[in-house]
Structure formats: structure tokens, C-alpha cells
Amino acid sequence: MPETSLSQLEPHWMPFTANRAFKRAPRLLVSAAGMHYTAADGRQILDGTAGLWCVNAGHAPEPIVRAIADAAARLDYAPGFQMGHPGSFELAGRLTTILPGDLDRVFFTNSGSEAVDTIAAVIVEPVAGSTGVLVPPRGYLERLRALCDRHGILLIFDEVITGFGRLGAPFAAQALGVVPDMITCAKGITNGAVPMGAVAVRRGIYDAVVETAPGGIELFHGYTYSGHPLATAAGLATLDVYRTDGLFDRAKALTPTWEEAVHSLRGLPHVVDLRNLGLMAAIELEPRAGQPGARAFDLFVDCFNRGALVRAAGETVCLSPPLIIEPGQIDELFGVVRAGLKQLA
Ligand SMILES: Cc1ncc(COP(=O)(O)O)c(C=O)c1O
User: Fold this and answer.
1) CB of 308 within 8 A of CB of 329?
2) C or N: which end of the chain has fewer Cβ atoms within 10 Å?
3) 231 C-alpha to center of ligand 1: Å?
4) Which residue's CA lies nearest to atom 9 of ligand 1?
């Protein structure tokens, strides 16, 4: 970006960003296709994080782009209260074909945050993602399920990150063999192309609210953009791409290669732990004295300068590539991380 236009960056108060440092040395992405972003200076950046854990099918697959464009031209908006449009019903139906157990009722939101609004229950991420890929101990989720059953407590999985193939199955519930009462999801539901979230519930929960209500509106809850036509078009096209390209199975098949690459970093400077499950990984670094998170942030910047996108989260660097990643690109990604680790202060 030209020096003269830096003042143009000031008005935007960026989310989850060190604003002052970013605006002094911006990292701007201007386009994306497949496994790569193009940076403002024209460099190709290998996407090691699926954007923000959401672009599971890779960037801008043609069927998803076309579906969104067609939907925008056909039906730009339809009110979702006391009204509907065919796309949201079709998407809900399609989602139930990949959801676990009897979770076959779906409420649409616009994000993962909205999907966890309203709730008195136990809610966990099956694998904690943005806190550093914390893999659950063996038996932990099974025990949580048993405890919730024993005490009549609803169990909710936040699958905003783990949903849509990240662990080599549609949801972590299937990959880890534990079925919750509700699942919240977002991100990969539209491959990140249009904001959307969803809450899937077991039929008994839906019936308890809807079938027992005296009449009128059963649940006073909803959003202006619930089940938006563009989002549902993107969601349907995304599910098609996942199925046609077999991306969930592909993630499963790539997992051993991924695991080997993650653990090839063992013994490198500052690495204190390496964690992985499915196509997720975290490299935990020894903190720099008095500067929490600084070492992981430096590694993130260094990797970007070397041409790969990774994500700094506290003392860890997290990796979650699109599920279309090729084995050679896994080598390339970890080659960049390895080079970065070797020169890290
Ligand atoms: C596990 C989890 N839940 C919820 C959210 C919030 O999702 P959103 O940013 O779509 O509101 C995130 C975002 O990264 C997440 O990682």
C-alpha cells in the first residue's frame, strides 16, 4: 500500500487487532483463489488457517461464487418473521442429512456468537480452537455426556470451528463419537463467503418448545437476517462442494500426513508443545519474559513475510488450512514455520 494512503487506515477501528502496530505496517489481502491469498504488494500467501477457520473448501470455488451472485440477482432479501423463502428450508433439510443423531431441527443465526445467545446448559467446544487447539482428554466428552444425562442438563457443542469437516467428519460429534443435544455452527456453513450461523437441536427440544405452546409465536427470538437468501444460497452451494469434492473424507485421509508434519517441529527453538487433531494444529511457544504473546505474534508476522498465513493466539500459533490443501503445500507451510522458528528471538 502506498505510504501516502496510510491515513486512510485510521478511521477503521479493527476487531481483535493491535490497531496501532497494524496501521504502521499493514498486512492487506486483496484477492484469494484456491489455497492462496494475494497480498497488496502482489505476493502469493499460502493460507494455513482457512481464513479464520472458515474457508474449508478453499477460496472462491466457482459454484459458491455463482450461487451467491445468482441469489443476489433473484431474491436480495426476504423477511424471516412470519414469512419465509424456499432456500432456508432446503438448507435446513440438507444440514440434517449430515448432523449427528436426532439433531434435525435447525434455527439460523448470522454468526457463531449469535448461535450461542439465550442458554442454560453446559456448552463446550469439542476441541477448543482459538484458545490454542486444546484436544479433549480421552473419555472427557463421554463423561460430560453421562453427567449431563444423569442430571437432566442439556449438552451443547460449539462446533463453529470443528464443524464441516475440520476433524475428518461432518461434525466433531461424529469424529469423536459423542452426540450432544444441540450444536451451534457458523463459519464453514457458507465457506466463509456470507455471514451465517445455525443452531441444530434434537427434535424433542423443538417439540418441547413448539408443540406445547398454546398458539401464536412459540419462541420470541430471531434476527432480521436469519436464513438470508444469499447466505442460504451460499450454504447450499457449499454443501454441494463438500460432497462433490469429498472434502470431509479428504481431511481424514490427510490427517496422518498433517500429524507427521506438525511433529516434525519437535525440538526446534522455543517449541514447548505440539498439538493436533484432524486438520487442526497448535505450536505452543515458550513465552518471552515480560512480553506475553509476543513470540507467537512475531512468528505470525515472519511467516506472513515468508508467504504463509498462520494465526497467533496467546503463546501458540494455530494452523487450520482449507481441506483442499495438497501434501506438497503441507510441506511448504511447515517449511515456512520451521524457518520462522529457527530465526525467532
Ligand atoms: C468456537 C467458536 N465459537 C464462536 C465463535 C464466534 O463466531 P462469530 O465470529 O461468527 O461470531 C468463534 C469465533 O472464532 C469460535 O471460534
Assistant:
1) no
2) C
3) 17
4) 112
